[in-house]
Amino acid sequence: MKSIRQLALLAALLGCQAYADEEPKKEAEQPQAPAVAEEKPAPAGGHVFAWGFMDWEKMQTRGGTTQGTEVTLFTGSKESWKRLHQPGLDKFEQDRRAILALAGNYRVSFDFTETAGLAENFKPTRPYFSWGTENVTTLEDRGGFISLQHSLVMYFKNEKGEMEGPHVMKHWREDWTYQDPEMQVFQGDLTWKKVPTESPAGKWTQAVFQVDDSPRYESSGKWSHDGGLSMWRSDLRQRPLPRREFSIRKDYNVQQGTDEITLTPNGWVHVQSNRKLQINPDGSRQYVGQEIGVDRYEEIISPDLATPFNAYWVKTNGYWKDVRETWDKVLRERDSFSMKDTYDGKQLFMIHFEHAEEIEQAEKPDPTGDLKHAQETIRSFLN
Q1: Beta partners for residue 154, in sequence order
Q2: Which of 215, 262, 263, 340 is paired with 101 by a 20 to 30 Å CA distance?
Q3: How many CB atoms lie within 10 A of CB 368?
Q4: Quick check: is 53 in a domain?
């Protein structure tokens, strides 16, 4: 049985791959492997989205294998959906309510398919699929600024088929800012640069942060509300590779693309259209392919996710607040920054999660050294 710390580290490693026990890296899954084109009918056993003539068995999804608990889906319309569609709202308030409606308790699925490759004799990697159960909580709502914390709350079946959990792991965070004048844009190679937001009037930026609250990527876009459809569509953005890619790909270092977030009566859907881009030290650029992804958030009524998250957050939120405020100061003061992948043999999330676990397990936590620990840890990873 994994300890809570081990599960936390697993969740951090997997990024958005909630229940994924990632398969070992295989040479057969390396991209750009030469392949001889072969004409044959689609297999009777199934059809692979976007690759109708591929061998079905060779395109089975990779990703999560751990067994989780059964869930009960919410039926009907969430209260946040009803509030979003109240008559007489101005555009700004509609936008705000759409963002606040992202909070909830969800079964989340992550589904990605490579749609094109630019190398000769390109062979697509296997599609990716994983899922998990996730709580999304509103941390702050200051009108034109809304912060949402994602946390995995997971129940596992052990080898005997017995259910274990809940195990709570802090996941990623998203901060929404109205008419934000500048953004942190990922440049590749663990480097970010502050750039002006293009035509910020009426736009919201979505800044996404890693499990350790370090910056991941940021993009801007407008919400639209028409005929019951509330959707946010981003401008072009750049982001680091997720684990599902960097664990098997070495031929590119930036995902460039757009995001669409669409509200539904019982949740929301995030659609990604990603280009795979190599940015070299001399500034030259080479696209190697593209993919499409669908992340689906469906509200559940069981198992209970909110109570376990709240119990964890009551104990550890003080430290994570120190971490967030330390990063806020870094982002205000620096026009650009780059990070080390490891320090003293550890990754950043490991040090933060170890300290948070100590706080969680202490009978009488002493917060006096938390801010210093957060500052020294982050400083150690900045170049």
Answers
A1: 167
A2: 215
A3: 7
A4: yes
Average pLDDT, whole number, for the chain?
A: 88
Per-residue model confidence as pLDDT tens digits over 34-64: 333 344 444 445 567 888 888 888 888 888 7
How many domains, the chain? 1
Measured between alpha carbons, how far is 273 from 156 in angstroms, rounded to an integer? 32
Spatial CA neighbour of 190 closest among 31, 352, 348, 50: 348
Contact between 238 and 187 under an 8 Å Cβ cutoff? The reply is: yes
Residue 351 bridge partners (DSSP): none
Is pLDDT above 70 for 30?
Answer: no
Q: Which domain holds residue 177?
A: 11-306
User: How does pLDDT run across 233-264, given as a tens digit for each residue?
Assistant: 999 999 999 989 988 899 999 999 999 999 99
Question: What is the C-alpha to C-alpha distance for residues 360 and 72, in angstroms, rounded to an integer?
Answer: 29
Q: What angle do CA 212, 218, 223 make, to 5 degrees?
A: 125
Q: Assess if residue 102 is contained within a domain.
A: yes
Tokens of 35: 């392949």
On the 0-12 / 13-18 / 19+ scale of CB atoms within 10 A, 69 is: middle
Question: How large is the average pLDDT for residues 207-215?
Answer: 97
Specify the amino acid at residue 349: F
Look up residue 105 and give its two tokens. Answer: 């308790």
> Over 50: is that where the pLDDT of 346 sits?
yes
Residue type, 310: N
Residues 210/224, Cβ–Cβ less than 8 Å: no
Decide if 325 is inside a domain: no
- Those residues whose C-beta lies under 8 Å from the C-beta of residue 159, and which sit 6 or more positions away, are none
| pLDDT for 1 beyond 60 | no
Q: How far is CA 155 from each of CA 134, 145, 242, 343, rounded to the nearest angstrom?
A: 11, 33, 24, 32
pTM of the model: 0.89
CA-wise closest residue to 161 among 263, 69, 271, 51: 69
Rounded distance, CA 128 to CA 249, Å?
13
Q: Is position 357 within any domain?
A: no
